[in-house]
Amino acid sequence: MRTDISKINEQSPAEDLTEGLMIFAGGTARDFKTGEWRTSTPIFDEEKCKQCLLCAPVCPDGCIPVKEGRREAFDLDHCKGCGICVKACPFGAIDMVEGMGV
Amino acid sequence: MAIKDRMSGNEAVAYAIKQVNPDVMPAFPITPSTEIPQLVSNYIANGEMDTEFIPVESEHSSMSATVGAESAGARSLTATSSCGLALMWEELLVAASNRLPLVLALVNRTLSGPININCDHSDSMGARDTGWIQIYAENNQEAYDNFIQAYPIAEDPRVHLPVMVCQDGFITSHAVQNILLEEDDKVKEFVGEYKPEEFLLNPGKPMAVGPYSVSNYAMEAKYNQEKAMENSGKVILEVAERFKKTFGRGFGFFEEYKTDDAEYIMLIMGSAAGTAKQAVDDLRAKGMKVGVLKLRVFRPFPADEIAKALSGCKAVAIMDRTESYNGHGGPLSSEVPAALFRNKVNIEAVSYIYGLAGRDFMVETAYEIFEELRDVVENGKKVKQHRYIGLRTREEQ
Known about the structure:
Chain A has 102 residues and is mainly beta. Chain A has two helices and four strands.
């Protein structure tokens, strides 16, 4: 009775939900696109970035992926727009803009 | 062969716990249930059982730890009374909504104030809408028997709900009565091993318990929980049937004592039912057709069954051992008439409050109530509803 959360949505009837809404699976937060709660969005300026990587560990939602020592573009599917990365950046390489940033 | 012994209600429940030998018992002492964790601790210290006992700093913690242990995959329980249950309030709802089949041995005691340690049902009745199955005992034997049936009900895949096994503080918890104890291996076999399909301490099979739910899902979850409570009725009767086949003592949602031809019935829960039965015997000897409906299972509430059982009588006395402070009556006097009305059973129903904070319920009082019911039916006497019996007021004196 492992849970396939891709098969559960807001139209699922009560009978298809798990007891106590328990989730019998791991790592399901990845599939839950919480970025839609955002009201402002960080914009990354690659030119100004020195790849110091101070921003990545301070992100509460782990939305700054790092590969081979370099940060990549924001994961906006999960970013809540808190702006902590902006404060952490010593080089002004991140700006916050109003709205969803698209 | 059952073993004849004599025990207090607390000893009987502790003995049942020893026989079931659950995995984890977090508990905090409170009168009059203190002996249960104390005796279990003794059994553990003496090597007679191997339950992990967790002494905690409050009942908020004992129920939290019980919830945690049960989620982890351990068969768990705790015991409490009165304010202890009140302090567990939040976790009672968490246990039920997370569909955890844990068990609580409750020894009914009044809630403050005035602060008092004696029996009434205000603690469990206050928790009546927390989603727990509630089973009440008249005597020590029933407290023992009900505990043995608790896990098979709770853990049934059609149920997965916590069970509160209730007995009356001091009246049954501390009074020593004759009792039939069943053999260890037979009890263990009856209760069976706990094999949850999903649990937290299950390597390679991660799961989330109690996740946040947005409105789009929460109402469906509550509906499913209610359905499980409805389903539990069938399971309670199945387990009772199996218990009867195994140990010979039968149970239902309620016991009907001499109600077959009864014109007047007293509906009552817990130890006071024994007093009511004595009054029935005495009055029947004088030719009055009276009976007792002793409610055993309060949650799920057997509304249709109660209505059917009362449909042949002329009047029912509904006895509440707690106050709802609603200006209208106690919980039974709200739920029983609702059951009668819905089933179109049109009989006289009079609601009484008795035995608050340990006030004795006497056989003579039960006579008076039966006689009052007869007065209502035969002479059209207008009675006061929601009347306190055994109370000192200028009017009553």
